[in-house]
Amino acid sequence: MLLFALGFLLVILQPSTGQFPRVCANMQSLLSKECCPPWDGDGSPCGQLSSRGSCQNILLSQAPLGPQFPFSGVDDREEWPSVFYNRTCRCEGNFMGFNCGECKFGFSGLNCTERQVKTRRNIFQLTSSEKNKFLAYLNLAKNIPSQDYVIATGTYTQMNNGSNPMFRDINVYDLFVWMHYYASRDTLLGGSNVWRDIDFAHEAPGFLPWHRVFLLMWERQIQRITGDENFTIPYWDWRDAEDCEVCNDEYMGGRHPTNPNLLSPASIFSSWQVICTRSEEYNSQQALCNATSEGPIRRNPGNNDKSRTPRLPSSADVEFCLSLTQYESGPMDKMANYSFRNTLEGFADPQTAISNPAQSGLHNALHIYMNGSMSQVQGSANDPVFVLHHAFVDSIFERWLRRHRPMLEVYPAANAPIGHNRENYMVPFIPLYRNGEFFKPSRELGYDYEYLQEPALESFQDFLAPYLQQARQIWAWLVGAAVFGGFVTAVLTVLIRACRKKKGGTSSEIQPLLIESEDYNNISYQSNF
């Protein structure tokens, strides 16, 4: 009870991170298209008086998009967030937030100057006390309303272009469920028409950076509503698992004794209500999910379609995926071949990297295996197993980044599906984050994974891999340089010997310069690439 009381007190005092800032969800802000709230520290917009930031026009990427979305001006998420706001806070230095009142991920302190790296741990390595605290934090988030953010219950057109705001309150946990739904929902085209081939968080290059930001924001939110600044999301390492090891009442809820599709009454999660799971109903009504409760969490792990997902992923699947050198390829969607992203997401075979949407591998395999709320994309975050699963997926992404050490330019700058180019802002986050900003090692964002810190042969191999790969790519140049260097050295040697003979034959009246013979040995040729 003390924990819950503390949480209710802290939520009043601490800001949250999420979607539409409450202070900007009004007619004045929508009509002016400006969201530049004051920072409480000095009362100025974006903390400008304290040099935290300033209100600026949003700079949108002009890079061309892929052909997957053939429309323009029909979806509020196009060129996010310009339909709602075209001026927001641009924060300076290590400041962040919709009003520049927070520190960037990986920084803390009064002026956000203190670097920090926190460790995400295997859920089975937590003590009983730590595990129970994690479960209590989840339940706390499900029962506390977000103080700083609201969700949209209508499109901008349905809001009469801003003159009739349509927003509502939501609890902290469901705020993130709604954001996941909003990023992946279908486009409403009017009448009964929708466009399904669109997703701002999946099936394209932004899948991994988007979920990385999602987890960082969720993690920070839990830290704030509990006052536990050291909290980190645990992960479930599902490699080679024979069943759902976390699906019991000690962890994420066991199976109901009489209804295998529901959770055990002994689990705190059995009383949770899901939201945003009825996509066909929303589409037929041309409406957005308004976060109305839609029943209990459903889960029946292992009783899924075995022809699509015969087993949980193996260690070999993960290792093959990590060996892929291309982050993205071809159409940069679920049909991409030899793409690390598409293979990890699960649309390509984890043994060949050839696209096969009829099968579900790696990330997708877990969702299908859970056979319930997690198996439907838009509402999958309703099941708290979601965060454990995606934390481990993010750790695989992290291993790939460390092994291959890609430059930022490896992330596609153009021609990716809508919302997924490097400089596109991620839907539906406010404050704004670009995809490319999270294509970097996790330690630069303030966190690490316990199992990646252990010094092992695997870590040494990960260290050598990018250099071996680079050597394979430029070996022909190295051989050519060696041959050229040998030729130049031979020519120099001939010239030097010729000069010596010429000087040796000069008149005795002309004295040669006194040069130590070993000085010639210091002459060398170095080729630069």
UniProtKB/TrEMBL annotation:
Region annotated Disordered, chain positions: 287-313
Compartmental location: Melanosome membrane
Keyword annotations of the record: Copper, Glycoprotein, Melanin biosynthesis, Membrane, Metal-binding, Monooxygenase, Oxidoreductase, Signal, Transmembrane, Transmembrane helix
Broad class of the protein's primary localization: membrane
Keyword Transmembrane helix on entry: yes
Coiled coil: none
Cofactor(s) essential for the protein: Cu(2+)
Bilayer topology: Single-pass type I membrane protein
EC number: 1.14.18.1
GO BP terms: melanin biosynthetic process; pigmentation
Signal peptide range in chain numbering: 1-18
Transmembrane regions: 474-496
Cellular component terms (Gene Ontology): melanosome membrane
Domain Tyrosinase copper-binding, chain residue ranges per copy: 202-219, 383-394
Gene3D superfamilies recorded: Di-copper center containing domain from catechol oxidase
Enzyme class (EC, first level): oxidoreductase
GO molecular function: identical protein binding; metal ion binding; tyrosinase activity
Presence of the UniProt keyword Transmembrane in the record: yes
Pfam families: Tyrosinase
Protein family according to the UniProt entry: Belongs to the tyrosinase family.
Stated name of the protein: Tyrosinase
Gene field: Tyr
